[in-house]
Amino acid sequence: MILMRVLISGAGVAGPTLAWHLAKAGTHVTIVEKAKSLLPHGQNVDLQGSAVTVVRAMGLLDEVRRRNTKETGTQFIDPTGKPFAAFPIKEGSYASLSSEYEILRGDLAALLFDATRNHPNIEYLFETTITEVVTNNDDTVKVELSNREAQEFDLLVAADGQWSKIRKQCFPSESVKSIHTGMYAVYFTIPREPSDNDLWNVYVALKSRIVTVRPDPYGTIRAMFTIMPRDEAQKRAWLTAGRSDRHTQQKLLRSEFADAGWQTKRFLDAMDQAPDFYFHVIEQIKMSTWSKSRIVCLGDTAYAPTPLTGMGTSLAIVGAYMLAGELSKLNENEHPAQALAAYERQYRPYVEKSQWIPFCVPGIAHPVTAWKRWLLHAVFRILARVVAIPWVANKLGDPSNDEDFPLPDFPRFDSGSTWAK
């Protein structure tokens, strides 16, 4: 592999995973992150398929298990809080919407940061952003940082998320599609009460609304509200709120969910004191090409699949492995664009397959009327009984099976390195 200097924007999941593999192969990596430090909050993410294999190979899977949210499964409840369809986690099976590798996004980011921050080839710059990409040509990519430094690198990786500023600056608007699913989600953390359990409790309200709570490992619970606006006035209100401040967003959430039922009032009453609050427009990102000369997009920046697929974190991790692997194959005098094209050529078909959203979500899962909710509940009841049959659960597959995307071997990852455990 040629010795390279790589700049990564974003210290979430994709960026540090890429840095881990690049540093192992001898590359010097700088990661810039706009936040003062890693954000401690966030909702659940999980690992699927090949991502489990990658994290295991990094020696981090046991730590993922240790930081597990302790969620034991998923259950659907009626307006009185009574469960009517349960999907407990079964090891080695997709019989539940919950995963044995369930972890808070902030905890996963912290784990990856801890695994990379002491490597001599990795440097983190917090409270730093890329203010301008000055040049991107055959020789180098030159950037100006928010600390007013101008630096040159061999490669710039945009891993700064679904609304990436680097992508917006460096790729033409016609090459990027933001596909709105018609759904909005709001997340925040609230106090746990003795009556709360360790399940993902899902309450389907009427008028296209859902309220859920999930356990975390810190003695609190994570609330999530989702909605699909039904008319033009409601759509405008939610679209406007997405561009507004927290106070405006909370006011809208209260007005829309005040009559939703179950324990919604309790959750809304605790919202003001929540240490975190995230308003999420559920959109999918599709790019006609992921790279341009010496700039490449990774993870949600290139192919955010939406939480509806459950694949965002896994795609970021496997994508980082694939990108680092193709870069590790470069020889002296070979342009990085060769590796970027190979990364996209091999990985894009799997990404496009993973971005598929089942027909029943989000629309059917957000019923407007009582009879549609009754029908949805009936389906959940039947599914719960079917997957409880042992031989059916065994047929549903193993989430740690890497056959969903066979990982190629990259010899450079197996060679000696200066990696400091």
From TrEMBL:
Residues 5-353 form the FAD-binding domain. Coiled coil: none annotated. Gene3D superfamilies: D-Amino Acid Oxidase, subunit A, domain 2, FAD/NAD(P)-binding domain. It comes from the Eukaryota. The keyword tRNA-binding does not apply. The keyword Cytoplasm does not apply. One of its GO terms (molecular function) is oxidoreductase activity. Keywords: FAD, Flavoprotein, Oxidoreductase, Signal. Residues 1-19 form the signal peptide. This is FAD/NAD(P)-binding domain-containing protein. It comes from Ophiobolus disseminans.
